[in-house]
């Protein structure tokens, strides 16, 4: 067979295997894995490089309205450009239902934002904020059939959070339809109570974001979410776990026989609450929810990655500009932590951080890296085996990694819309030097190629591997 492209002499890595092989690509798909393939229009020399499935980041916020004049720093163009720079070929973003809005209406809005704008492949999780009988009974089943097979619910944020009876109804609808539910676990009533107490005491600086959202508030909500899921007998994903106690809840639930996926994120490995405690409003840069904790929590999250408590390592990219009246330092945010928008940028730094801190420091092996950053996302969110692995017939979404490349992170190289990165100056070992999306090179040496020009496609998805 004559190929469009052959990647030669690289070390191919999947979630289970590592082997030296050439990769033959035809019509955007992987067509051969063999030695000495050379009949191709384009030959890419990958000697000394790892040939990995492109990253899949299944937790990315793009172009969501945040209320009160706050504007998210990335739209689908800039956010997916940054994702590609960081070695990702697919992102799963959120389609946020407004109260009173149908899911179909919400999807129309998000498709209009995304379609034709994306540099990598994209799909949507539905965020359900208004679980009416019509939404759960009529819309959801039809949308799951149409390939919108996952949804997110919140236990915190007034206006977004669901109460326990609404959570049960949503979980039950998910069970009936075969959708997978992601849950943001923090106890809103406890947080509101603590914010009130902090206000009485005049504690309004950014660092108090962390003390109003303590570990117990996350642990309690995690336990409750898992109990509610047990009651209706449905799998769930516990997203952005920040500490040992919440992680142990996942372990306990699995011991009870529940099907649970766990997710953690770079901020819980690399940041602590001390980062919020800085002069000149600098702490606002690190405000996200759940908040970063302490060194012991970082160690626990590493343990969870090493031991398989966490299946997913996602960015929770939720970017706001720092020095901007529409961002972190909006007028009210300068004076009170509760008005600092929650979230940090990270779609470009997720993979390099885990590669450098995890693989190169010997905490996880490279097969675990692939599982945590690509394969498990594809399996859990209904994209496998088209995405998330290197096998015959899969989309040729491939990242070439140079383990010898040393990079000092700067905001500018990440090409997102935020005006900072929480990881400025971090020394990284190992870098994605080339990225192919369905066989076309879209990133080379940290720059988008002309072929990258918004070639990302929308992906309808199948059912999760955890469902059914
Ligand atoms: N939850 C997220 O998943 N992302 C950003 C903010 C939040 O609360
Ligand atoms: Zn969340
Ligand atoms: Zn998020």
The gist of it:
The chain has 468 residues and is an alpha/beta fold. The protein contains 14 helices and 17 strands. The model has no long low-confidence stretch (mean pLDDT 97).
Tell me about this structure.
With 468 residues, the protein is α/β, with parallel strands linked by helices. Helix content is 31%, strand content 23%. It contains 14 helices and 17 strands. The strands form two sheets. Strands 1, 2, 3, 4, 5, 14, 15, 16 and 17 form a nine-stranded mixed β-sheet that branches. An eight-stranded parallel β-sheet has the order 6-7-8-9-10-11-12-13. The mean pLDDT is 97. Residues 184, 239-240 line the site of one zinc ion. One zinc ion is lined by residues 59, 61, 316, 318.
Overall number of structural domains: 2
Helix content: 25-40%
CATH topology of the largest domain: TIM Barrel
Which residues sit in consecutive blocks of at least 5 with pLDDT less than 50?
none
Number of alpha- plus pi-helical segments: 14
Kindly provide the radius of gyration, computed on alpha-carbon positions and rounded to a whole number of angstroms. 21 Å
Mean pLDDT: 97
CATH superfamily of the largest domain: Metal-dependent hydrolases
SSE blueprint:
Elements: E1 3-13, E2 18-26, E3 29-34, E4 40-45, E5 50-53, E6 55-60, H1 76-85, E7 88-96, H2 103-114, E8 121-127, H3 133-145, E9 150-154, H4 164-177, E10 180-184, H5 188-200, H6 208-211, H7 215-232, E11 236-238, H8 244-255, E12 260-264, H9 267-270, H10 295-307, E13 312-313, H11 331-335, H12 350-359, H13 366-380, E14 398-408, H14 411-414, E15 427-437, E16 440-444, E17 447-448
Parallel strand pairs: 1-4, 1-5, 6-7, 7-8, 8-9, 9-10, 10-11, 11-12, 12-13
Antiparallel strand pairs: 1-2, 2-3, 5-14, 14-15, 15-16, 16-17
Helix pairs in contact: 3-4, 4-7, 7-8
The structure holds dihydropyrimidine-2,4(1H,3H)-dione (DUC) and zinc ion (2 copies).
The site of one zinc ion has 3 residues, from loops.
């Amino acid at each position: 067979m004559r190929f469009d492209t052959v990647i030669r002499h690289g070390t191919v890595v999947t979630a289970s295997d590592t082997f030296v092989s050439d990769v033959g690509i035809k019509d955007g798909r992987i067509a051969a894995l063999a030695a000495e393939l050379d009949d191709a229009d384009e030959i890419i020399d990958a000697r000394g490089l790892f040939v990995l499935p492109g990253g899949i980041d299944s937790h990315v916020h793009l172009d969501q309205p945040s209320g009160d004049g706050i504007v998210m720093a990335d739209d689908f163009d800039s956010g997916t450009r940054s994702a590609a720079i960081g070695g990702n070929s697919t992102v799963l973003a959120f389609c946020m239902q407004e109260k009173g809005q149908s899911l179909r209406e919400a999807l129309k809005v998000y498709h209009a934002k995304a379609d034709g704008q994306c540099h990598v492949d994209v799909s949507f999780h539905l965020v359900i904020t208004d679980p009416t009988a019509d939404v759960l009974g009529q819309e959801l089943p039809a949308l799951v059939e149409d390939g919108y097979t996952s949804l997110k619910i919140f236990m915190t944020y007034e206006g977004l959070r669901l109460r326990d009876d609404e959570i049960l109804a949503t979980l039950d609808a998910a069970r009936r339809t075969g959708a997978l539910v992601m849950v943001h676990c923090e106890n809103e009533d406890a947080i509101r109570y603590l914010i009130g107490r902090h206000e009485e005491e005049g504690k309004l600086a950014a660092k108090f974001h962390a003390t109003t959202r303590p570990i117990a508030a996350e642990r309690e909500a995690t336990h409750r979410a898992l109990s509610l899921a047990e009651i209706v007998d449905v799998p769930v994903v516990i997203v952005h776990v920040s500490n040992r106690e919440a992680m142990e809840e996942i372990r306990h639930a699995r011991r009870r026989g529940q099907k649970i996926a766990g997710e953690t994120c770079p901020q819980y490995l690399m940041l602590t609450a001390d980062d919020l405690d800085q002069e000149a409003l600098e702490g606002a840069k690190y405000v996200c929810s759940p908040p970063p904790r302490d060194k012991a929590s970082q160690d626990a999250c590493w343990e969870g990655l090493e031991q398989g408590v966490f299946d997913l390592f996602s960015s929770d990219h939720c970017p706001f500009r720092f020095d901007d009246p529409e961002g972190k330092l909006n007028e009210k945010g300068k004076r009170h932590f509760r008005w600092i928008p929650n979230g940090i940028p990270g779609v470009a730094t997720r993979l390099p951080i885990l590669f450098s801190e995890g693989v190169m420091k010997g905490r996880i092996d490279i097969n675990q890296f692939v599982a945590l950053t690509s394969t498990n996302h594809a399996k859990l969110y209904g994209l496998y085996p088209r995405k998330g692995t290197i096998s015959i017939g899969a989309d040729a979404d491939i990242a070439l990694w140079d383990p010898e490349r040393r990079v000092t992170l700067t905001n500018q190289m990440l090409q997102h819309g935020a005006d900072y990165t929480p990881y400025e100056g971090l020394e990284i070992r190992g870098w994605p030097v080339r990225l192919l999306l369905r066989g076309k090179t879209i990133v080379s040496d940290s720059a988008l190629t002309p072929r990258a020009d918004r070639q990302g496609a929308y992906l309808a998805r199948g059912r999760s591997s955890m469902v059914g």
